[in-house]
């Protein structure tokens, strides 16, 4: 190992240790916390978790301690403090914490962002190139000292709330700059700027998230995205790891599960609420997605919740 490599690892460890100290003191119990800096969230878990299905909005996810697994379609992303995850478009995913304990809790910083946040930085510092072919809307990148150092400055502002209004925007702008300057930053560039094909696909994604209960007509979705039907299908699948129909199905099933578990709806009511016309089709697709029929799955999930209460 070269001295420069050893120095890099040492500096990375020092910044990470300081971040862990600051966050474990402020967030002493397991949970998902909002902070006084609106895009910044902190997740702490004291034990590994069951698989959780959710719709993930664009964000930077930086693990400081522990390990996690995230599934997107057939893809699986495992990451830890040596790398960070970027979700660049809204995606239905599954995830679970693999490594956590009371002595060494799982600690993760989630920094939400919008395309407009990136566009403001791009206007002043455009990247050197953009991808010719569509790429995944989720990727892993190796952690580096500048990003960790900037994140530490942002987190430290939680200790001086009077400084947040003035200094947090500067730190956030620097973080977006670091993401854009990363190995995969060109993906973010194409998604944030102008009328690129990736930007048009995000319009289709946004429409599906707002209208997932409606029947899906690819020709209409292609019109909304201002793309040909075959081009939309190709680029949509490249970005999300699924077709538009599979994407809609994921949204419907996740929302149905939330309605049954969180709001107490029965299977038929949840089925119709999310846009299914056939309860038998709903049950089949639900079983494939979650591993068991709706009633059995919800009963099992409630027993887990009751056991932890």
TrEMBL record:
Record key words, sorted: DNA-binding, Transcription, Transcription regulation
Membrane-crossing segments per the record: none
Domain HTH araC/xylS-type per the UniProt entry, residue ranges: 202-300
Matches recorded under Gene3D superfamilies: Homeodomain-like
Biased composition (Basic and acidic residues): 299-309
Signal peptide residues on this chain, from the entry's feature table: none
UniProt xrefs under PROSITE patterns: HTH_ARAC_FAMILY_1, HTH_ARAC_FAMILY_2
UniProt keyword DNA-binding, yes or no: yes
Residue segments, region Disordered: 285-309
Entry protein name: AraC family transcriptional regulator
Originating organism: Pseudomonas granadensis
């Amino acid at each position: 190992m070269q001295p420069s490599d050893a120095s890099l690892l040492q500096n990375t460890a020092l910044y990470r240790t300081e971040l862990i100290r600051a966050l474990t003191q402020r967030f002493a119990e397991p949970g998902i916390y909002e902070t006084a800096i609106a895009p910044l969230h902190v997740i702490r878990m004291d034990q590994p978790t069951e698989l959780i299905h959710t719709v993930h909005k664009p964000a930077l996810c930086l693990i400081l301690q522990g390990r996690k697994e995230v599934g997107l379609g057939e893809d699986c992303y495992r990451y830890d403090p040596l790398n960070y995850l970027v979700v660049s478009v809204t995606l239905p995913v599954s995830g679970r914490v693999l490594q956590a304990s009371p002595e060494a809790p799982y600690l993760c910083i989630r920094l939400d962002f919008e395309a407009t946040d990136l566009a403001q930085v791009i206007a002043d510092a455009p990247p050197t190139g953009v991808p010719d072919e569509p790429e995944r809307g989720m990727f892993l990148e190796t952690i580096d000292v500048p990003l960790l150092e900037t994140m530490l400055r942002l987190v430290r502002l939680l200790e001086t709330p009077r400084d947040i209004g003035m200094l947090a925007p500067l730190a956030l702008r620097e973080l977006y700059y670091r993401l854009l300057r990363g190995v995969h930053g060109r993906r973010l560039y194409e998604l944030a700027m102008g009328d690129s094909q990736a930007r048009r696909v995000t319009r289709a994604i946004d429409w599906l998230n707002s209208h997932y209960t409606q029947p899906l007509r690819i020709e209409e979705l292609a019109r909304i995205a201002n793309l040909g039907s075959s081009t939309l299908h190709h680029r949509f699948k490249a970005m999300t790891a699924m077709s538009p129909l599979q994407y809609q199905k994921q949204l419907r099933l996740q929302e149905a599960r939330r309605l049954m578990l969180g709001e107490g709806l029965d299977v038929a009511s949840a089925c119709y609420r999310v846009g299914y016309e056939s309860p038998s089709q709903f049950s089949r697709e639900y079983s494939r997605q979650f591993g068991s029929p709706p009633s059995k799955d919800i009963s099992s999930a409630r027993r887990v919740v009751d056991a932890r209460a």
